[in-house]
Amino acid sequence: MNTRVFRSEVRDEVLSIVREPTALLFTVLVPVAFFALFATMFGDQGDGFGVEAVATYGAFGVLSAVLINPGIGLADARERGWLRVKRADGTPLGVTLSAKVTAALPYAIITLAGIALVARFTAGPLDLSQVLRVIGVLLLGALPFSLFSLAVGARFSLNAAISVLNGVLIPLVVVSGLWFPLEMLPTWLGEIAVYLPPYHLAQLALAQVDGGPVWGHVAYLVGTTIVGAIAAALAYRSAEV
Amino acid sequence: MEHVLEVRGLVHKYGDHTALAGVDLTVGAGECVALLGPNGAGKTTLVRNVIGLIDGDAELIEVAGGNPRRAETRRRLGVVQQAVGFPRSLTVGEIVGGAAVRRGCPPEAASRAIAEMGLTGLEKRRANKLSGGQQQRLQLAMGLVADPVLLVLDEPTEGLDVKARGRFWETIRRRLDDGAGVLITTHLVDEAAAVADRVVVVDRGRVVAEGTPDELRRTLPDRRIEVNTKVPVSVIRALDSVHSVELQHGRTVIAATDSELVIRALLDLDPEASDLTVATASLTEVLVAMTNDEEVAA
Q: B3-217: CATH homologous superfamily?
């Protein structure tokens, strides 16, 4: 029963995305366009914009999908009273929320594919298995961010949720070193970065390429997931539906 | 009569504010109960407890044989809520189809509900392109999809034109004949009273009157007496059967349950009282007077 409901919920969410493509264009185009811009500007420096860059810019792409969409979707459904309808219908809360997160993943996959494609043209042939591992890690590592997104969507009005989530995304991305390598940023920013979950997501993805340490980043992301889940649960409990 | 809804001693507080102060309510199978009262009386809070959206303290709250906090219980209800906006991008067919899936019904159930609410031919239209009345019918179609044992309808005729309202009441009567219970809040008091088996009046979180529409008309102050008299308001107010008295443009306006009794007493006090008229108030006017509010609404 719940599987059927989940499929129906995801279908509705995906239809909403496909039929309102403006948001899709922004979510996908901005990270891919940024990547193309930076690859063109700095592609001839260092190791170029290969799989390593797919890991860091891909983390930005994934974040822009999973940190923004589930929360805005939830705030919109709350504000419309649609969430009340779902609850009165007996739809399990977990099904409604996980459908919103799942529906954000196609955005993330298209973004990652776009970034990988640009990397292929700017840096030459890529190691496909590395690319797939990077994409897999980034998609799995998206969970804690989607939980924070849901927490914001459960707590704030639609307009406030849009502002909060977009207001958090860009500083988080810059300070975590996803746009520019931390070495290019002031030292104090680098010191902050190690406390930020996106940094650990990007490092975990990079580890699939350079064989760097993994478990410290995994532990950090698992901890963030637990905190995100608690935040989402508390926010939802106190939410007005 | 078998109860499809039974609420006993329901108390619901928002912080220091008591929205419901010990409400009892039952709805039987095949019975239509109209829930009336002024804005802020607690009707929507009561409805939200009944459909399991919020959780007050109650000695007993049993809906369709189960606890409304349980999802499987809620799937046996048909609900129309106030102020619902449908997703912009979904069509009528997808929305009712989704409701059928959530309630474990086959797709044919969605088609039947769409036809019952007169939305056939609009299946592929996006919900946000429907008129207000069509959207209200869409919500009712969602509520009817699983042949509910209890329909809980919060202002269901809001936005419907006369023809659509007639069709709506026909649907309700058909469902009542099939044995479903109906709990309805509406500001169209007299229209609801024409269909309701019982009327429950809520004010300030309490049930202040209850009975069949005829019983309420007999016991409530539905006689409106207007007269030119020198008898002070305070004296008239103390007379038997008088519910309220006020001065309007120099005339004394009295709401009472027994106009004959009041007129005799008034003429004893003031034989020169003149220009006397008596009218029977509508149920709406009676309830407005009773709850001392400007409107009786959900």
A: P-loop containing nucleotide triphosphate hydrolases (3.40.50.300)
